[in-house]
Design brief:
This protein has 445 residues and is mainly alpha-helical. The protein has 15 helices and no strands.
Length: 445
């Protein structure tokens, strides 16, 4: 095990990840907030474009998912050369994918946006914004891989600081182009695109510098003389199920959003506010789960099976305990929290009911996140994917429809469906981990 990981506990790994995830989530919110001062059409243009960009981002993350698991297992097994080779293959793979998609977006963005029925009045700005962001998708492609390399070596604090710097640069750049600071022309969405690209470039340069300074790369003698077929296969074995699981989740949310739309504007608005409030509880569980994934990967590499078992269930207990506490606090303070966004009594009442159901939802989600990431870290990647599909499509969607529409529970019924899905998967993955079927799934040879 590397010296860095030995010195760091779950807490030391998790809190920088939490802050980094929060900053990443807030970046889009800040862009929208600042653009609203420019024009509503600018917000709409960026929103339409980001639907395309966010879908593409899923393709970049599947390589990063495989990178962290394979690197931590090999570093735990003290296979330093193998870990370095996986890092190089991952960067190369995502760079190639990113360059192809960058070219595709430059050529096809107008046709894609037409297919999405982009309104004529914002088509010109949306196409320009998309082409600027799309031209530099290769930066977006290699960023999660480089961040994954840092996390694999335990440098979560450095990754957090870099994300903070990037956010600051993005906000400053937005302000210049949206508000016309320092005599610069106000160019709204185009300026936001330039600011976004620049902040991503700075992020990649800074991460690369940290990697160059902190990590010593060495390779086997024949690495550059052969095609890294085995490394690519292993990355795909982990990454493809993870990517498909994310696609399944995103598409299921689109279906459920159509149910919410049937319930009217009040339900749509309340859903947005409740999702934003519960996001911070979710991010806490996700940060703990990702930190635990790093530790489990190392322990698997060291073949410390009992430590993997106890570490994961200890993390699950922590995540569930904190999630319950935060969810109860949110419920008790619901009037004040929703009051940040609105004073509509109907929204305040419905939102409080959702936050009550959210207590159960977060218990299941905390278990689900921790156990899913732990199973993947052991190499047991297909089981979470299969039951993720079952939970989202065969449980959540049918129950959401039945409770919301025929049984007329409305948005509360949809929230109950979310809770049932998360608790079902949390229980299934807990039983899977207790059954230790993951012991022989490691990628270490």
């Amino acid at each position: 095990m590397s010296e860095t990981i030995k010195r760091q506990s779950l807490k030391q790994l998790a809190w920088p990840i939490f802050i980094e995830l929060t900053l990443f989530m807030l970046m889009g919110t800040v862009d929208t907030f600042m653009l609203s001062a420019y024009s509503d059409s600018a917000v709409a243009a960026v929103g339409m474009s980001n639907q395309v960009i966010n879908l593409i981002a899923v393709m970049f993350n599947f390589v990063a998912a495989g990178t962290i698991i394979l690197m931590t297992q090999n570093l735990g097994a003290n296979h330093q050369e193998k870990a370095c080779e996986i890092a190089v293959v991952s960067i190369g793979a995502n760079l190639i994918i990113g360059l192809i998609l960058s070219l595709t977006m430059v050529i096809c963005s107008k046709y894609i946006l037409r297919f999405m029925n982009t309104p004529t009045e914002i088509m010109g700005v949306t196409v320009t914004y998309t082409k600027i962001i799309g031209s530099f998708l290769f930066l977006m492609a290699i960023q999660p891989v480089l961040s994954g390399i840092l996390r694999s070596y335990g440098y979560t604090k450095q990754s957090m600081i870099i994300t903070l710097i990037a956010n600051a640069l993005n906000v400053f750049g937005n302000a210049i182009f949206i508000y016309g600071l320092f005599g610069v022309a106000k160019i709204g969405p185009i300026g936001v695109a330039i600011s976004t690209v620049f902040s991503r470039l700075v992020t990649i340069v800074l991460i690369a510098l940290v990697i160059f300074k902190k990590i010593h790369f060495n390779f086997s003698k024949d690495f550059f003389k052969r095609l890294p077929i085995q490394e690519i296969q292993n990355i795909l074995k982990i990454g493809v199920p993870s990517a498909l699981e994310q696609v399944a989740y995103s598409s299921s949310q689109v279906i459920i959003l159509s149910f919410v739309s049937l319930l009217g504007t009040l339900a749509i608005t309340t859903r947005v506010y409740t999702s934003n409030l519960s996001m911070f509880i979710y991010l806490f569980s996700l940060a703990i789960a990702q930190a635990n994934q790093v530790l489990v990967g190392y322990l698997i590499g060291e073949q410390k099976i009992e430590d993997v078992y106890h570490q994961t269930f200890k993390t699950q207990a922590l995540a569930v305990s904190v999630s319950i506490t935060l969810s109860i606090i949110a419920y008790l303070m619901s009037h004040s929290l929703f009051g940040i966004f609105t004073q509509d009594e109907s929204i305040l009442s419905l939102g409080k009911s959702l936050l009550l159901v959210n207590i159960l939802l977060e218990i299941g989600r905390a278990s689900n996140l921790v156990l899913t990431n732990a199973l993947k870290a052991t190499g047991d990647v297909n089981y979470p994917f299969i039951f993720g599909i079952i939970g989202m499509w065969l449980i959540c969607i049918p129950i959401a429809y039945l409770l919301a529409i025929p049984f007329q529970f409305g948005l509360v019924g949809i929230w109950i469906a979310f809770a049932v899905d998360e608790c079902f998967r949390g229980l299934i993955f807990t039983l899977r981990f207790k059954g230790r079927k993951w012991i022989d799934k490691s990628f270490i040879t």
